[in-house]
Amino acid sequence: MTAPGALIGIDWGTTSFRAYRIGFDGQVIEARSAPAGILKVQGGAFEAVLEREIGPWLHDGPDLPVLAAGMITSRQGWVEVPYCPCPAGSAEIARALWRHETGRGRIVHFVPGVAFVAADGVPDVIRGEETQIIGEAGAASGRRLLVLPGTHSKWALVEGGRIVWFATFMTGEVFGVLKEHSILGRMVADEADDAQAFQRGLAYARAEGGGLLKRLFSARTLVLFDQLRPAGVASYLSGLLIGTEVGEALDCLADAPAGREITVIGSSELTAAYLSAIEHAGLRGRRAAADAGAHGLFLIARAAGLVR
């Protein structure tokens, strides 16, 4: 039997469940995933799902600490955990862990999300992404700028291992709504990745005059005037939205890190799209290390004294 390791880390989101057995060196020994996000758990049976998905790990390592992050700590999750305010690094998040005893007597430490209040007084929140940010940049000195693409993209600035600023952009959700429920989506035919259309969308996002609401209608008119193929509409819209996101995020950060290198944490397809958009904006992009979220859980557990 393989040694159980030092920690069981869980990223339990809205649509998916991911778990990691992590060694004393912070490296992932084994990973498991399932389409068992919190919205698919019936009747609040979270403990039953936990046992179903990683029961053997729990059995083989009865004394292993278990850390769970993500939407599992939201109002719709297992236990609602108050947000940890910025600035927040592994030490601050570790102090805010929520200790919960399951019906079987197992202790689960729930990781809080992080909250930030901007200069305009409007709050923003993240749940789950904080572990990825800490795992990628939390142990490094200096300043790092990161983006986590997705339904709700997150941009974060880290200084000295602590998240000091972040902002959410609803890029992925807006893309889905436009494609499925707007007149622009009706233009899509035989959808396929179209690199040229994507680049054209990026370019128009940076054009002078007008903003996104004006530019969106171009996805219709370019097709009407045979300047864009219907099969390229989705790629064009993606470029337009991602390009706008990059511009808006940088506008929020007049004092961004020197060199403007941006680290992208995400799936390979989204990472490639964002790296292209970052390069188009004249900046430098880099891919995050693999298993950033698992490493972040390890750093938080170590800061909490759960891993020696």
User: Could you list the spans in which at least 5 consecutive residues all have pLDDT below 50?
Assistant: none
Distance between the termini: 23 Å
Number of helices: 10
What CATH first level of the domain at 169-287 would be assigned?
Alpha Beta
For the largest sheet, list the strands in their spatial order.
3-2-1-4-8-7
Structural class assignment? alpha/beta
CATH topology of the domain at 169-287: Nucleotidyltransferase, domain 5
Shape: globular
CATH superfamily of the domain at 169-287: 2-keto-3-deoxy-galactonokinase, C-terminal domain
Number of strands: 15
Instruction: Please give the largest β-sheet.
Output: 6 strands, mixed
What percentage of residues falls in helices of 4 or more residues? Answer: 25-40%
What does this structure look like?
Helix content is 35%, strand content 23%. It has ten helices and 15 strands. It has a six-stranded mixed sheet, sandwiched between helices. The protein has a six-stranded mixed sheet with strand order 6-13-12-11-14-15, with helices on both faces. Strand 7 and strand 8 form a beta hairpin. The radius of gyration is 21 Å and the shape is globular.
